[in-house]
Amino acid sequence: MTETASGSVARGGKRPRKGLKMKRIFTKPGVHPYDEIAWERRDVVMTNWRDGSINFEQRGVEFPEFWSVNAANIVTTKYFRGAVGTPQREWSLKQLVDRVVGVYTRTAVEHGYFAGDEDAEIFDHELKYALVHQIFAFNSPVWFNVGTKSPQQVSACFILSVDDQMESILEWYKEEGVIFKGGSGSGVNLSRIRSSKELLSSGGTASGPVSFMRGADASAGTIKSGGATRRAAKMVVLDVDHPDIEEFIETKAREEDKIRALRDAGFDMDLGGKDIVSVQYQNANNSVRVSDEFMRAVEKGGEFGLRARLTGEVIETVDARGLFRKMAKAAWECADPGVQYDDTINDWHTTPETGRITASNPCSEYVHLDNSSCNLASINLLKFLKDDNSFDVANFVKLTELIITAMDVSITFADFPTEKIGETTRAYRQLGIGYANLGALLMATGHAYDSDGGRAVAGAITSLMTGTSYRRSAELAGAVGPYDGYARNAEPHKRVMRKHAAANDNLRTIGSMDAKIHAEASRQWSECLRLGEKNGFRNAQASLLAPTGTIGLMMDCDTTGIEPDLALVKFKKLVGGGSMQIVNQTIPRALKQLGYLQEQIEAIVEYIAEHGHVVDAPGLRQEHYEVFDCAMGERAIAPMGHVRMMAATQPFLSGAISKTVNLPESATIDDIEQVYLEGWKLGLKALAVYRDNCKVGQPLSAGSGAKKDEAKDAAEVVPAEPEVKVIEVNRPTRRRMPNQRPSTTTRFTVGGAKGYMTASSYPDDGLGEVFLKMSKQGSTLAGVMDAFSVAISIGLQYGVPLETYMSKFVNMRFEPAGMTDDPDIRMATSVMDYIFRRLALDHLPYDERAALGIFSAAERAAQQRGEDPAALQETVDREALAQSAPIEAKPEDAQGEDRPGAAETQGGAAPASPSAMTLESHQRFTADAPLCMTCGTKMRPAGSCYVCEGCGSTSGCS
């Protein structure tokens, strides 16, 4: 525990305050934390699949020997600063941690956080120990920016605001652009903008918020394509009582219908295609702010009033259930909109006297004041599981207060993208502590994710984390003062603290593990209320649950955020290069905890390694199957299992939870209605859903596509007596291939199946013939491939554009599928998918391939460097791929005198398969996840976003 003592110097004429007395957690007096670690040198070599071409190389980097190759690779490529090959380039984890922690410690000392120099040293040593031992991690902007000459941006989450004025709307466009340019995301509520059913002061009709969304969407898409390849991360919110709510709800679903129609008409509608830019509203997540009044009307089947923005009067009445049905139907069709429960959010709001909470960040975990930001940090829960399977409550408490202290210090020195955001954040000091590895912790201790016991453990840990955080915030208020806006919000803030404490009192414990955690949480909340009454609070917000994508990989976490495990089998990168398949290390520990003998454990693990699941594993009792349930696969956790876990932790969080509830493709609109309704009843703040294969941008299953077409065909009206007309048709003529023609033969492997493709062209260029060989001559497969080749060749010779074949066969799914041996095409969903991607790369110009979203490995690398892939040269500039923000030179730094020479070990020479790919290969299951634009491998879900396990890139969340 931390104490306070007099000792800080008065600043600005204010009375002296008490500085913090720090106590050691993991370190020893007189021993630097680095000195107790065995360090080793490695080479980080990132390659393009198996062809050996290198797109990043830094040799002799230094990491603790217990860090995985994957974690070291991600930190080296993403977080080390300075140009590769120069003395300024960071080459050791020590340098990175020193750069960041040094700024935190110096700032804390300068602003009177500590009682004395010894306390500052303890803070410095403990922070360094926790970071290098992967016990917690700051969010990515901290690692990118702190200690460099770049702006000291530490926040990953932003909320903007817009008023019903053209100047404000244009300012919104500008502010979003600045945030997107920096690689971050933001959210905004457009409900202040008057609807298209209201009049302007000039007498004309207003455009409405949905029309202004078009401009913002185009801006986001332009900045995305001009800077990075990933789509912009943004959230757009509209209140359910806005007169344009139906148009908002159906906006993206209507665009999906447009995509289908254009695709069927022959336009290139793949992600990244040139024709997809004609489709609007694709760069944002949409959410509806629903009120308790509306949800009660849905329950009762009553009517609900839509209100004018300027006067507040009801200008239209709608059927609540009908509107709710439209929300669920749109989400069933395209995953948007999500819901945010407005009254629940504002009932837990600590600063209502300043303003309501109207919006969120793109992933919906940060919900607070407009024009504000939040910096995040996440704890690796598995680090607190002792050998006897008990939870280390004491050290968890101490680490939480250390992290909260550091996070508050960061606001003191941080820079912000706009002045308004800076002013609000400094005045209210919002923090977002959270955790990762909950799913792994539950499995290791024998708790099923979807069980009362699992939810009790999760709730107790979350309560302890937030109770300790606010108790620490009250201590910081006593040392350096409460946040500037506390005085006017003191009563509502203390009311919310009492609500948290009451929820903790109502928490029902199941076993000894959660009972001990809950007992300490009760003590922390009691002390929090006592100190808060005396000192106030330093922070308006303390906790939330973020996706923890990249930093989860940095900490070698098996699971991210609040998520369960994705799969029981993963691939692990090896120090000597390559990778090997392993069963999750938590499984043997879980089996031992459940009482199985060593021989039984070995047999079960061997079965899991072969099959990827536990069903029918030898000796495993069926009542234990649920302990090993995962997010996808043979025994996928039911959608309501995810909702119930969110509900178990939500009362103990200042903010919300980044998590998408995944539903199978067979889910109905009723299922989504039930999820949204139960989310409200269970007290969640926000909820998003995703039904597999619901979006055209993802590969569609044959069944869903056929049903859609049948429904459309049935709706067509056929005349009773059709008029007979004679129509003359200009028929195409066949352009036969000459006897001698240039050709290329490609040997390929898809999912272990080998084949050969010979593609012949006309002498004046243009593909005219394709021959495919797979399996032995005379076999059924060989005959089918011969017939297919003839059909395609004849079509090409009759003038069918190759692009038309691309649009039909790219993304087609069937076995064999999976990894290929082609450096440009890492994954293929079928042999046909591979063949036509290869033909596109060989025979189509860059502009036409870009419209189809098909790029070579070199072109993807060029995009990441910000270069024009169309003008790509054959040589690869390796240094340009490095993270090159300049680092501040330190006088005592020898700048390269002790730099390593030849590496002692080789690491990261070949990318490992992400667990999503592993699950597919084991169970013939295809996960709906995008391919990473940095390295081309399939990403995996992380909260509401996706993260690449190969290189650490995310789809929008830091």
Automatic annotation (TrEMBL):
Gene3D superfamilies: 3.20.70.20
Keyword DNA-binding: no
Keyword check for Cell wall biogenesis/degradation: no
Ranges of residues in domain Ribonucleotide reductase class II vitamin B12-dependent N-terminal: 44-134
Annotated Ribonucleotide reductase large subunit C-terminal domain residues: 155-690
Composition skew (Basic and acidic residues), residue ranges: 889-901
Signal peptide: none
Key words, A-Z: Cobalamin, Cobalt, Disulfide bond, DNA synthesis, Nucleotide-binding, Oxidoreductase
Cited Pfam families: Ribonuc_red_2_N, Ribonuc_red_lgC, TSCPD
Protein name, as recorded: Vitamin B12-dependent ribonucleotide reductase
Organism whose genome encodes this protein: Nonomuraea roseoviolacea subsp. carminata
Lineage of origin: Bacteria, Bacillati, Actinomycetota, Actinomycetes, Streptosporangiales
